[in-house]
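Q: Please design a sequence for this.
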């Protein structure tokens, strides 16, 4: 954890203790050795910077200066998104939550979607035309 002043979007030490092993497993499950240069910024700081952008809605380039550079944070966010890390973390947190609630894994999943039928004809044929004035304009 870093020595900077915490933001409201930062993870608490208890939350990070739960998330860190899940995130590390998702990131490094296939790798036996870490390759490349050592990390310049901690995984905690990168995750907190991502959470800062997501909770405040600011642009990536508007990250505060005490967080890692926005290009680094954005690179990790996009890379994890492409690798499916976020869905793995969400599934792991869901399994952990279900275990703590003493509920088993779901047997079936139902996805509900709403659709509104528009017209049978489709395209422009179903659109109504603008009404024409019956009287002559008096202007």
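A: Design:
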């Amino acid at each position: 954890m870093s020595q900077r002043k915490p933001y409201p979007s930062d993870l608490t030490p208890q939350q990070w203790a739960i998330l860190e092993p899940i995130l590390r497993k998702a990131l490094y499950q296939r790798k036996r050795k870490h390759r490349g240069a050592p990390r310049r910024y901690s995984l905690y700081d990168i995750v907190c910077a991502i959470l800062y952008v997501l909770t405040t809605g600011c642009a990536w380039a508007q990250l505060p200066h005490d967080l890692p550079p926005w290009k680094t944070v954005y690179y990790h966010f996009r890379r994890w998104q492409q690798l499916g890390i976020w869905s793995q973390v969400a599934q792991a947190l869901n399994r952990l939550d279900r275990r703590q609630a003493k509920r088993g894994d779901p047997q079936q999943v139902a996805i509900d979607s709403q659709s509104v039928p528009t017209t049978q004809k489709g395209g422009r044929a179903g659109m109504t035309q603008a009404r024409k004035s019956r009287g002559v304009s008096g202007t």
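Q: Thanks. Anything notable?
A: The radius of gyration is 25 Å. The mean pLDDT is 81.
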